[in-house]
Amino acid sequence: MARYYASIYGNRGIVTRTGSSTSGIHGHIRGWHVGVKVDCHPDPDNPKRDVCEVYETGGSNRDWEKKHIATIKERRD
């Protein structure tokens, strides 16, 4: 079983991808001028847990622009 899993749906149906502890998993959903990038990877402070980082981007027109929006860390109670 993969550590990371992503799915995306568009006019050609659904596709899925997996990621490992080494590769993580990354996605960029965007229009021409606005987008959201998500990176999921092991937490540097605790590699057994996961962290996802969310960024606002400049979309396809300016995909190098990104602003950090949130860091979401795995919680185990």
In short:
With 77 residues, this protein is an all-beta fold.
Give an overview in words.
This protein has 77 residues and is mainly β. It has one domain (24-77). Helices cover 0% and strands 70% of the residues. The chain contains no helices and six strands. It has a four-stranded antiparallel sheet with strand order 3-4-5-6, with no helix packed on it. Strands 1-2 form a two-stranded antiparallel ribbon. A hairpin with a 3-residue loop joins β5 (46-58) and β6 (62-73). The radius of gyration is 14 Å and the shape is globular. The model has no long low-confidence stretch (mean pLDDT 94).
* Averaged pLDDT: 94
Q: H/E series, N to C?
A: EEEEEE
What characteristic shape results from the CA principal axes?
globular
Radius of gyration: 14 Å
Read across the widest sheet, the strand sequence of neighbours is: 3-4-5-6
What's the number of extended β-strand segments? 6
Indicate how many domains the architecture comprises: 1
Unreliable runs, pLDDT <50, ≥5 residues?
none
Terminal CA distance reads 23 Å
- Largest beta sheet, briefly? 4 strands, antiparallel
Binned strand content: over 45%
- Secondary-structure content class: mainly beta
Share of helical residues: under 10%
Total number of helices: 0
